[in-house]
Protein backbone atom coordinates (compact mmCIF):
# COMPACT_ATOMS: atom_id res chain seq x y z
CA UNK A 1 0.00 0.00 0.00
CA UNK A 2 1.15 3.52 -0.79
CA UNK A 3 1.87 6.00 1.98
CA UNK A 4 0.11 9.37 1.69
CA UNK A 5 1.20 12.45 3.59
CA UNK A 6 -1.55 14.96 4.40
CA UNK A 7 0.15 18.20 5.41
CA UNK A 8 -1.43 21.35 6.82
CA UNK A 9 -0.32 24.77 5.55
CA UNK A 10 -0.82 27.50 8.17
CA UNK A 11 1.63 27.27 11.10
CA UNK A 12 2.84 23.96 9.67
CA UNK A 13 4.26 24.28 6.16
CA UNK A 14 4.63 27.98 6.94
CA UNK A 15 5.59 29.60 10.22
CA UNK A 16 2.52 31.85 10.29
CA UNK A 17 -1.26 31.92 9.85
CA UNK A 18 -1.73 33.33 6.35
CA UNK A 19 -5.08 35.05 6.94
CA UNK A 20 -3.64 36.78 9.99
CA UNK A 21 -0.72 38.00 7.89
CA UNK A 22 -3.11 39.11 5.13
CA UNK A 23 -4.96 41.14 7.73
CA UNK A 24 -1.75 42.92 8.73
CA UNK A 25 -1.09 43.77 5.08
CA UNK A 26 -4.62 44.85 4.15
CA UNK A 27 -5.16 46.89 7.32
CA UNK A 28 -1.82 48.69 7.24
CA UNK A 29 -2.33 52.37 8.03
CA UNK A 30 -5.86 51.85 9.33
CA UNK A 31 -6.46 53.52 12.73
CA UNK A 32 -8.10 50.37 14.07
CA UNK A 33 -5.47 48.02 12.60
CA UNK A 34 -4.37 46.40 15.87
CA UNK A 35 -7.90 46.04 17.22
CA UNK A 36 -9.12 44.31 14.06
CA UNK A 37 -5.99 42.19 13.79
CA UNK A 38 -6.38 40.92 17.37
CA UNK A 39 -9.99 40.00 16.63
CA UNK A 40 -8.92 38.04 13.53
CA UNK A 41 -6.21 36.31 15.56
CA UNK A 42 -8.80 35.46 18.22
CA UNK A 43 -11.04 33.79 15.62
CA UNK A 44 -8.03 31.78 14.39
CA UNK A 45 -7.02 30.49 17.82
CA UNK A 46 -10.57 29.62 18.88
CA UNK A 47 -10.98 27.42 15.82
CA UNK A 48 -7.50 25.84 16.12
CA UNK A 49 -8.29 24.90 19.71
CA UNK A 50 -11.70 23.50 18.75
CA UNK A 51 -13.67 26.09 20.73
CA UNK A 52 -15.73 27.41 17.79
CA UNK A 53 -16.58 25.87 14.42
CA UNK A 54 -14.17 26.38 11.55
CA UNK A 55 -16.88 28.00 9.41
CA UNK A 56 -17.68 30.49 12.15
CA UNK A 57 -14.02 31.37 12.40
CA UNK A 58 -13.54 31.61 8.62
CA UNK A 59 -16.59 33.81 8.10
CA UNK A 60 -15.55 36.12 10.93
CA UNK A 61 -12.02 36.53 9.59
CA UNK A 62 -13.01 37.12 5.96
CA UNK A 63 -15.54 39.75 7.05
CA UNK A 64 -12.81 41.69 8.87
CA UNK A 65 -10.08 41.40 6.23
CA UNK A 66 -10.94 44.15 3.73
CA UNK A 67 -8.36 42.69 1.33
CA UNK A 68 -7.95 42.59 -2.46
CA UNK A 69 -5.81 40.86 -5.09
CA UNK A 70 -2.95 43.34 -4.68
CA UNK A 71 -2.79 42.46 -1.00
CA UNK A 72 -2.64 38.79 -1.97
CA UNK A 73 0.43 39.45 -4.16
CA UNK A 74 2.17 41.03 -1.19
CA UNK A 75 1.11 38.15 1.05
CA UNK A 76 2.57 35.53 -1.31
CA UNK A 77 5.96 37.28 -1.32
CA UNK A 78 5.85 37.37 2.46
CA UNK A 79 4.84 33.71 2.87
CA UNK A 80 7.64 32.48 0.61
CA UNK A 81 10.05 33.87 3.21
CA UNK A 82 8.13 32.25 6.04
CA UNK A 83 8.25 28.58 5.04
CA UNK A 84 9.07 26.50 8.11
CA UNK A 85 12.79 25.77 8.21
CA UNK A 86 12.46 22.01 8.46
CA UNK A 87 10.14 21.87 5.44
CA UNK A 88 12.39 24.18 3.46
CA UNK A 89 15.47 22.01 3.92
CA UNK A 90 13.57 18.85 2.94
CA UNK A 91 12.57 19.89 -0.58
CA UNK A 92 13.94 16.60 -1.88
CA UNK A 93 11.24 14.71 0.04
CA UNK A 94 8.45 16.47 -1.85
CA UNK A 95 10.15 15.92 -5.19
CA UNK A 96 10.56 12.22 -4.42
CA UNK A 97 6.94 11.91 -3.19
CA UNK A 98 5.21 14.24 -5.65
CA UNK A 99 2.28 11.86 -6.08
CA UNK A 100 1.57 11.27 -2.39
CA UNK A 101 2.64 14.43 -0.51
CA UNK A 102 -0.51 16.57 -0.36
CA UNK A 103 -1.38 19.92 1.13
CA UNK A 104 -4.82 19.87 2.76
CA UNK A 105 -5.74 23.18 4.35
CA UNK A 106 -8.57 25.38 5.45
CA UNK A 107 -6.59 28.23 3.89
CA UNK A 108 -6.89 29.44 0.31
CA UNK A 109 -5.43 28.17 -2.96
CA UNK A 110 -4.80 31.72 -4.14
CA UNK A 111 -1.87 32.05 -1.74
CA UNK A 112 -1.06 28.39 -0.97
CA UNK A 113 -0.37 27.22 -4.52
CA UNK A 114 2.34 29.81 -5.35
CA UNK A 115 4.12 29.04 -2.07
CA UNK A 116 4.17 25.21 -2.18
CA UNK A 117 4.45 24.61 -5.94
CA UNK A 118 8.21 25.40 -6.07
CA UNK A 119 8.76 22.48 -3.69
CA UNK A 120 7.44 20.01 -6.23
CA UNK A 121 3.95 19.66 -4.80
CA UNK A 122 1.52 19.13 -7.66
CA UNK A 123 -1.32 21.59 -8.14
CA UNK A 124 -3.84 18.74 -8.23
CA UNK A 125 -2.61 17.64 -4.80
CA UNK A 126 -3.37 20.99 -3.16
CA UNK A 127 -6.76 20.97 -1.46
CA UNK A 128 -7.90 24.29 -0.02
CA UNK A 129 -10.63 26.92 -0.13
CA UNK A 130 -11.03 29.59 -2.81
CA UNK A 131 -11.92 33.27 -2.47
CA UNK A 132 -14.78 35.11 -4.13
CA UNK A 133 -13.97 38.52 -5.64
CA UNK A 134 -15.98 41.47 -6.91
CA UNK A 135 -15.25 43.27 -10.20
CA UNK A 136 -12.63 45.50 -8.52
CA UNK A 137 -10.71 42.49 -7.19
CA UNK A 138 -11.84 42.86 -3.58
CA UNK A 139 -12.33 39.70 -1.52
CA UNK A 140 -16.03 39.42 -0.79
CA UNK A 141 -16.26 35.89 0.58
CA UNK A 142 -15.40 32.29 -0.19
CA UNK A 143 -16.88 29.28 -1.96
CA UNK A 144 -19.06 27.81 0.80
CA UNK A 145 -19.76 24.65 -1.22
CA UNK A 146 -16.15 23.54 -0.68
CA UNK A 147 -16.10 20.95 2.13
CA UNK A 148 -12.94 22.57 3.53
CA UNK A 149 -14.92 25.70 4.37
CA UNK A 150 -17.08 23.78 6.83
CA UNK A 151 -16.58 22.29 10.26
CA UNK A 152 -14.85 18.90 9.93
CA UNK A 153 -13.95 19.85 6.37
CA UNK A 154 -10.81 17.77 6.17
CA UNK A 155 -12.71 14.69 7.29
CA UNK A 156 -15.42 15.32 4.68
CA UNK A 157 -12.83 15.80 1.95
CA UNK A 158 -10.95 12.60 2.73
CA UNK A 159 -14.19 10.64 2.77
CA UNK A 160 -14.96 12.00 -0.69
CA UNK A 161 -11.46 11.20 -1.99
CA UNK A 162 -11.60 7.64 -0.61
CA UNK A 163 -7.81 7.21 -0.72
CA UNK A 164 -6.53 3.65 -0.84
CA UNK A 165 -3.36 3.63 1.20
CA UNK A 166 -1.81 4.41 4.56
CA UNK A 167 -2.40 8.08 5.42
CA UNK A 168 -0.25 10.13 7.79
CA UNK A 169 -1.53 13.52 8.94
CA UNK A 170 0.77 16.40 9.95
CA UNK A 171 -0.60 19.63 11.39
CA UNK A 172 -0.90 21.97 14.34
CA UNK A 173 -4.66 22.43 14.74
CA UNK A 174 -7.82 20.75 15.91
CA UNK A 175 -9.03 20.20 12.34
CA UNK A 176 -5.91 18.10 11.73
CA UNK A 177 -6.56 15.95 14.80
CA UNK A 178 -10.14 15.37 13.59
CA UNK A 179 -8.67 13.23 10.81
CA UNK A 180 -7.26 10.84 13.38
CA UNK A 181 -10.46 10.96 15.41
CA UNK A 182 -12.43 9.94 12.32
CA UNK A 183 -10.30 6.83 11.79
CA UNK A 184 -9.39 7.89 8.24
CA UNK A 185 -5.66 8.20 8.84
CA UNK A 186 -3.01 5.86 10.21
CA UNK A 187 -1.31 8.31 12.56
CA UNK A 188 -1.56 11.98 13.46
CA UNK A 189 1.60 14.03 14.09
CA UNK A 190 1.18 17.29 16.00
CA UNK A 191 3.63 19.73 14.41
CA UNK A 192 5.07 22.11 17.00
CA UNK A 193 7.96 23.86 15.26
CA UNK A 194 5.95 27.09 15.20
CA UNK A 195 3.25 26.70 17.82
CA UNK A 196 2.22 24.02 20.31
CA UNK A 197 -1.46 23.78 21.19
CA UNK A 198 -2.02 21.60 24.24
CA UNK A 199 -5.51 20.64 23.08
CA UNK A 200 -3.85 19.09 20.02
CA UNK A 201 -0.55 17.73 21.32
CA UNK A 202 -2.12 15.78 24.16
CA UNK A 203 -4.24 13.84 21.66
CA UNK A 204 -1.60 13.26 18.97
CA UNK A 205 0.02 9.91 18.19
CA UNK A 206 3.36 11.70 18.13
CA UNK A 207 4.51 15.27 18.76
CA UNK A 208 6.93 16.31 16.03
CA UNK A 209 8.90 19.51 16.75
CA UNK A 210 10.13 19.53 13.16
CA UNK A 211 9.54 17.85 9.82
CA UNK A 212 12.96 16.22 10.30
CA UNK A 213 11.52 14.42 13.34
CA UNK A 214 8.58 13.10 11.30
CA UNK A 215 10.91 11.80 8.59
CA UNK A 216 13.26 10.29 11.19
CA UNK A 217 10.64 8.31 13.14
CA UNK A 218 9.22 6.96 9.89
CA UNK A 219 12.69 6.10 8.52
CA UNK A 220 12.20 8.31 5.46
CA UNK A 221 14.97 10.05 3.48
CA UNK A 222 15.73 13.43 5.03
CA UNK A 223 18.05 16.40 4.74
CA UNK A 224 19.78 15.96 8.10
CA UNK A 225 21.04 12.78 9.73
CA UNK A 226 19.49 13.26 13.15
CA UNK A 227 16.78 15.68 14.34
CA UNK A 228 18.38 18.27 16.60
CA UNK A 229 15.25 18.38 18.75
CA UNK A 230 16.31 14.91 19.94
CA UNK A 231 19.63 16.20 21.28
CA UNK A 232 19.14 17.22 24.91
CA UNK A 233 21.19 20.21 26.04
CA UNK A 234 21.34 20.86 29.79
CA UNK A 235 22.12 24.44 30.79
CA UNK A 236 23.46 24.51 34.36
CA UNK A 237 24.52 27.39 36.59
CA UNK A 238 24.89 31.10 35.90
CA UNK A 239 24.49 31.10 32.10
CA UNK A 240 23.31 34.27 30.31
CA UNK A 241 20.00 33.86 28.52
CA UNK A 242 21.55 34.61 25.12
CA UNK A 243 23.72 31.49 25.39
CA UNK A 244 20.80 29.09 25.73
CA UNK A 245 18.77 31.05 23.16
CA UNK A 246 21.51 30.51 20.56
CA UNK A 247 21.28 26.75 20.99
CA UNK A 248 17.49 26.77 21.22
CA UNK A 249 17.17 28.72 17.95
CA UNK A 250 19.42 26.12 16.32
CA UNK A 251 16.82 23.47 17.19
CA UNK A 252 18.32 21.73 20.22
CA UNK A 253 16.13 20.66 23.13
CA UNK A 254 17.01 22.91 26.07
CA UNK A 255 16.56 22.22 29.80
CA UNK A 256 17.72 24.84 32.31
CA UNK A 257 18.71 23.35 35.67
CA UNK A 258 20.54 24.26 38.86
CA UNK A 259 22.56 21.03 38.86
CA UNK A 260 23.28 17.90 36.82
CA UNK A 261 20.33 15.81 37.95
CA UNK A 262 20.78 12.05 37.86
CA UNK A 263 17.68 11.49 35.71
CA UNK A 264 19.37 13.28 32.79
CA UNK A 265 22.72 11.44 32.86
CA UNK A 266 21.88 8.73 30.33
CA UNK A 267 20.14 11.07 27.85
CA UNK A 268 22.12 14.32 27.85
CA UNK A 269 23.89 15.13 24.57
CA UNK A 270 25.25 18.60 25.38
CA UNK A 271 26.22 20.42 28.59
CA UNK A 272 26.42 24.22 28.73
CA UNK A 273 27.86 25.18 32.11
CA UNK A 274 28.24 28.42 33.99
CA UNK A 275 31.52 29.35 35.65
CA UNK A 276 32.34 27.39 38.85
CA UNK A 277 29.94 24.52 38.02
CA UNK A 278 31.50 21.13 38.85
CA UNK A 279 30.56 17.89 37.09
CA UNK A 280 31.03 14.64 38.99
CA UNK A 281 33.44 12.23 37.27
CA UNK A 282 31.17 9.23 37.83
CA UNK A 283 28.24 10.97 36.13
CA UNK A 284 30.53 12.00 33.30
CA UNK A 285 31.61 8.38 32.73
CA UNK A 286 27.98 7.25 32.54
CA UNK A 287 26.80 10.02 30.19
CA UNK A 288 27.10 7.81 27.12
CA UNK A 289 25.25 10.15 24.77
CA UNK A 290 27.23 13.24 25.77
CA UNK A 291 29.05 14.76 22.79
CA UNK A 292 30.12 18.25 23.81
CA UNK A 293 30.64 20.41 26.89
CA UNK A 294 30.65 24.20 26.79
CA UNK A 295 32.08 25.97 29.84
CA UNK A 296 31.68 29.71 30.40
CA UNK A 297 35.02 30.16 32.11
CA UNK A 298 38.12 28.05 32.75
CA UNK A 299 37.09 24.40 32.82
CA UNK A 300 40.24 23.32 34.70
CA UNK A 301 39.36 21.78 38.04
CA UNK A 302 35.64 21.67 37.29
CA UNK A 303 35.26 19.10 34.50
CA UNK A 304 37.86 16.42 33.75
CA UNK A 305 39.38 17.19 30.36
CA UNK A 306 41.13 13.83 30.15
CA UNK A 307 38.02 11.86 31.09
CA UNK A 308 36.03 13.74 28.45
CA UNK A 309 38.68 12.94 25.84
CA UNK A 310 38.66 9.26 26.85
CA UNK A 311 34.91 9.21 26.26
CA UNK A 312 34.98 11.18 23.01
CA UNK A 313 33.47 14.34 24.52
CA UNK A 314 34.68 17.68 23.15
CA UNK A 315 35.19 20.63 25.52
CA UNK A 316 35.01 24.30 24.60
CA UNK A 317 35.80 26.82 27.31
CA UNK A 318 37.10 30.35 27.77
CA UNK A 319 39.75 30.46 30.47
CA UNK A 320 40.16 34.22 29.96
CA UNK A 321 36.48 34.91 30.79
CA UNK A 322 35.91 37.20 27.84
CA UNK A 323 32.58 39.00 27.64
CA UNK A 324 31.77 37.41 24.30
CA UNK A 325 32.04 33.85 25.64
CA UNK A 326 28.28 33.71 26.30
CA UNK A 327 27.81 33.74 22.53
CA UNK A 328 31.10 32.26 21.37
CA UNK A 329 30.98 29.02 23.39
CA UNK A 330 27.44 27.91 22.38
CA UNK A 331 28.24 28.66 18.74
CA UNK A 332 31.34 26.45 18.94
CA UNK A 333 29.20 23.70 20.48
CA UNK A 334 26.68 23.99 17.64
CA UNK A 335 29.46 23.98 15.03
CA UNK A 336 30.75 20.71 16.43
CA UNK A 337 27.34 19.05 16.39
CA UNK A 338 26.39 20.44 12.97
CA UNK A 339 29.70 20.17 11.12
CA UNK A 340 32.23 18.30 13.27
CA UNK A 341 34.42 21.39 13.89
CA UNK A 342 36.74 21.18 16.91
CA UNK A 343 38.69 24.39 16.39
CA UNK A 344 39.65 26.00 19.75
CA UNK A 345 38.59 22.90 21.67
CA UNK A 346 40.37 22.46 25.02
CA UNK A 347 40.88 18.69 24.72
CA UNK A 348 40.47 17.67 21.06
CA UNK A 349 42.66 18.04 17.97
CA UNK A 350 41.68 21.39 16.33
CA UNK A 351 39.87 20.96 13.02
CA UNK A 352 37.82 23.43 10.99
CA UNK A 353 36.05 21.45 8.30
CA UNK A 354 34.52 22.44 4.96
CA UNK A 355 30.73 22.56 4.80
CA UNK A 356 29.05 19.36 3.71
CA UNK A 357 27.81 19.25 0.13
CA UNK A 358 25.96 16.19 -1.15
CA UNK A 359 27.97 13.87 1.07
CA UNK A 360 27.80 11.95 4.31
CA UNK A 361 30.39 12.84 6.95
CA UNK A 362 31.58 9.87 9.00
CA UNK A 363 33.18 10.99 12.27
CA UNK A 364 35.46 8.49 13.98
CA UNK A 365 36.92 9.26 17.42
CA UNK A 366 39.51 6.71 18.49
CA UNK A 367 42.52 5.96 20.64
CA UNK A 368 45.69 7.26 19.02
CA UNK A 369 47.43 3.92 18.49
CA UNK A 370 49.09 2.45 15.37
CA UNK A 371 46.86 0.74 12.80
CA UNK A 372 43.51 2.43 13.48
CA UNK A 373 43.42 4.45 10.26
CA UNK A 374 44.55 1.44 8.27
CA UNK A 375 41.61 -0.54 9.70
CA UNK A 376 39.16 2.31 9.03
CA UNK A 377 40.29 2.65 5.41
CA UNK A 378 40.18 -1.11 4.97
CA UNK A 379 36.44 -0.94 5.76
CA UNK A 380 35.96 1.75 3.12
CA UNK A 381 37.95 -0.26 0.58
CA UNK A 382 36.04 -3.45 1.32
CA UNK A 383 32.75 -1.63 0.73
CA UNK A 384 34.05 0.14 -2.40
CA UNK A 385 33.10 3.54 -1.00
CA UNK A 386 33.78 6.70 -2.99
CA UNK A 387 35.72 9.00 -0.63
CA UNK A 388 35.50 12.74 -1.39
CA UNK A 389 37.86 13.93 1.35
CA UNK A 390 39.49 12.73 4.54
CA UNK A 391 40.97 14.53 7.53
CA UNK A 392 42.95 13.18 10.46
CA UNK A 393 44.43 14.95 13.48
CA UNK A 394 45.71 13.62 16.78
CA UNK A 395 46.25 15.10 20.22
CA UNK A 396 47.95 13.01 22.85
CA UNK A 397 46.10 9.71 23.18
CA UNK A 398 43.20 10.85 20.97
CA UNK A 399 42.65 10.51 17.23
CA UNK A 400 39.98 12.37 15.28
CA UNK A 401 39.23 11.14 11.74
CA UNK A 402 36.71 12.71 9.38
CA UNK A 403 35.74 11.04 6.11
CA UNK A 404 33.31 12.57 3.62
CA UNK A 405 31.83 9.88 1.38
CA UNK A 406 29.27 9.43 -1.36
CA UNK A 407 25.85 8.91 0.21
CA UNK A 408 25.32 5.61 -1.62
CA UNK A 409 26.75 2.79 0.49
CA UNK A 410 25.63 -0.32 2.32
CA UNK A 411 24.44 0.77 5.77
CA UNK A 412 26.08 -2.36 7.23
CA UNK A 413 29.36 -0.52 6.71
CA UNK A 414 28.46 1.78 9.61
CA UNK A 415 28.38 -1.19 11.98
CA UNK A 416 31.82 -2.22 10.75
CA UNK A 417 33.24 1.25 11.44
CA UNK A 418 31.79 1.26 14.95
CA UNK A 419 33.45 -2.12 15.56
CA UNK A 420 36.96 -1.06 14.52
CA UNK A 421 39.32 -1.83 17.41
CA UNK A 422 40.12 1.19 19.63
CA UNK A 423 37.01 3.11 18.52
CA UNK A 424 35.76 5.53 21.19
CA UNK A 425 32.78 7.11 19.40
CA UNK A 426 31.40 7.11 15.89
CA UNK A 427 28.64 9.19 14.34
CA UNK A 428 27.27 9.99 10.92
CA UNK A 429 26.53 13.54 9.90
CA UNK A 430 24.75 14.92 6.86
CA UNK A 431 22.58 17.90 6.12
Automatic annotation (TrEMBL):
Transmembrane segments: none annotated. Its cofactor is Mg(2+). Keywords: Amino-acid biosynthesis, Hydrolase, Magnesium, Metal-binding, Serine biosynthesis. It catalyses: O-phospho-L-serine + H2O = L-serine + phosphate; O-phospho-D-serine + H2O = D-serine + phosphate. Residues 361-431 form the ACT domain. Its EC number is 3.1.3.3. The keyword Metal-binding applies. Pathway: Amino-acid biosynthesis; L-serine biosynthesis; L-serine from 3-phospho-D-glycerate: step 3/3. It holds the Pfam family HAD. PROSITE patterns: ACT. This is phosphoserine phosphatase.
Amino acid sequence: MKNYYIIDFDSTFTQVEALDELARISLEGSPDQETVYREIERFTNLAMEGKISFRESLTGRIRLLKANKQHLDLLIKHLKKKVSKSFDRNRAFFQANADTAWIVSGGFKEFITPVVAPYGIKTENIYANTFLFDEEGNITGYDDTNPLSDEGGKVKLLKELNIEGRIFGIGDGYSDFQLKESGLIERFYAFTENIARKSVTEKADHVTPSFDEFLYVNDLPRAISYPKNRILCLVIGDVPKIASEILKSDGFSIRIKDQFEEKYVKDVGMLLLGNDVDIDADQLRRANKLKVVGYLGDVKGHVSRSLCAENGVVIFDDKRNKKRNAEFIPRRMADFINNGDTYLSRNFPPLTLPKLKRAHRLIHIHKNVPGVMANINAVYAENEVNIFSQFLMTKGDLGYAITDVDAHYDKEMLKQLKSVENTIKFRILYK
